[in-house]
Design brief:
Elements lengths: L2 H25 L12 H6 L15 H26 L5
């Protein structure tokens, strides 16, 4: 398994964990108090794409913020794929 695959896998796991933290903070699961800042990790992971969310209608903004890290994950995966085709990773 290459370093790129590990990085992409780690980003996916972190994104899933950030979604879980958002759900726990939003719905108060496990006796946790509702926290309006529970989605901050998704905002950080989704930079710079979350800056463009203001252009969307209000009902779509939470969904766009939750999915914005996927753009970064896809970009990292594409870069890894391009480096792999070029033969850039030594074994």
């Amino acid at each position: 398994m290459t370093l790129c695959r590990l990085v992409v896998g780690a980003l996916v796991v972190l994104w899933a964990f950030a979604l879980f933290i958002l759900a726990v903070g939003t719905f108060g699961w496990f006796g946790q108090e509702r926290d309006p800042l529970s989605g901050i990790f998704l905002i950080v992971m989704g930079q710079p794409w979350v800056m463009a969310i203001d252009a969307l209608p209000d009902p779509l903004r939470p969904w766009a913020a939750a999915l914005a890290p996927l753009v970064n994950i896809a970009l990292v995966a594409a870069i890894c794929r391009a480096l792999g085709r070029r033969g850039g990773s030594p074994r």
